[in-house]
Amino acid sequence: MSRIKKIIVGSLLGVVMIGLFAFNSIEDRYFEIAKNLDIFATLFKEVNAFYVDEINPNELVRTGINAMLNSLDPYTDYIPEDDIENYRTMTTGQYGGIGALVGKRGNYNTIIMPYEGYPAHEAGLQIGDQIIKINNINLENKKTDEISKLLKGQSKTEINLTIQRYGAKETFDILLKREKITINNVPYYGMINNHVGFIKLSDFTTDAGKEVRDALAELKGKGASKLILDLRGNPGGLLDEAINVSNVFVAKGAEIVSTKGKVTSWNKTYTAPAEPVDIELPLAVLTSSGSASAAEIVAGVIQDYDRGVLVGRKTYGKGLVQATRPLSYNSQLKITTAKYYIPSGRCIQAIDYSNRNEDGSVGRMPDSLKVAFETRNGRTVYDGGGVDPDVAVNEIKFASITIALITKNLLFDYATKYHYEHKTIANPNTFKLADEEYLEFGDWLSDKDLTYETSVERTLGQLEKAAKEERYYDDIKAELDSFSEAAEKNKEDDLQRFKEEISYVLEEEIVSRYYLESGIVEASFDNDSDILAAIEVLEDSERYQNLLKGE
Question: Which residue from 137, 242, 489, 532 has the fewest beta carbons nearer than 10 Å?
Fold first, then answer.
């Protein structure tokens, strides 16, 4: 046999062997799937028949499903039929209800924020109103999700709320009609000064791009020549809306994001579909560890094209794309199908998404694990763990007393009291508590539970425990007691020591009673360190340009 024939025959045999191996591999995989499904079914049958206590089949199987999916990644979820409406609300921002944020304040189900223009607001419900009954159903001991289901329903259906209001001796009823509620992606936009506009983008549900586009056009009409886009705490949402929001600031046809996954036919590169609103005006984007997914696409696009500067903190680090797949009995699977890549070519997915800091951020990664990429201007940027800001701003750490005042609802309760004792206040951006009003707040606190532990006290407690374990306690007991006494005495002055930050938080809480969500945003303009840093950069054009050049 000639050499050429041997090569041909050898090649053909190789192809056949590869084909047989692939066929066997596929058969083996299907056999393993069938085998394990059979094991699961027979195991469930045996547990159901012989386990000592009665089991709930739905709960047991759901626990098994959740445990299986949790072994994959944090974003692949099973959505049973009962939760479909909540999932639709998350993705569309729409639901049938009264248009108010309701939550627990102490033991009471309380109106936290009525949305302007919706039934709760139109009917006069106030922040701090306690909902005692819904359609004569007593809410005592009801869980938050149970209350949410009672509040929601078909548009135009009636709902009766029994309300307890601050200062009122008796409860009263309010009859409302539910409406289709659309939660705005842009809860606020306005002018910080006569030339710097501000847009707060809190979600990426349907029409997020349109809302940002309309807001920017209106702000430009009011004289905005510079802009701050606030993405802090934005958890992301629809990929299409990330593209639409990015398109507000970058040219039509510019690459926004590409996706790559196992199903290659689903891989796609997305470009800006429309003409932008403005590709020149100086732009600062605020980011935090809570800026995730679609918010990171927008932040990354702005950075990769050197279209603006990022101010704040490293973003969350979620570079995964999810799709929903229908399952039997009206349930669904939300499954991670791909990773996304922003224009520089980097994927910002955290390399290890199972281990995070307390705030959810990925923390500092070793340089050896990062891969360098370049922006359009040649600036070096990195993958593997969120988008780094161009101007880093340290996150404000509240004092222990401030945290206690917030978590114990003391600021919330005092703001409600203040509201009913003062018919009007100044505008949100000028309202300040007078010194005597702050003293009145301190007097009000005198008979309230304001117990809290400082970090110094926690450290002393740990030291005492270690000393006892290592049998040094008797030798240093006097010193420890002295330190503990001094720490406790210092706490007596905390209300004055941290007056500035406590006043700031309390003023925002009070402002919300009169001006709702927009008032909270406007009240923060003079105190928010991220906003102040962004304004400083935007007002210094030389520094702004140098940052974009990497200088």
Answer: 489
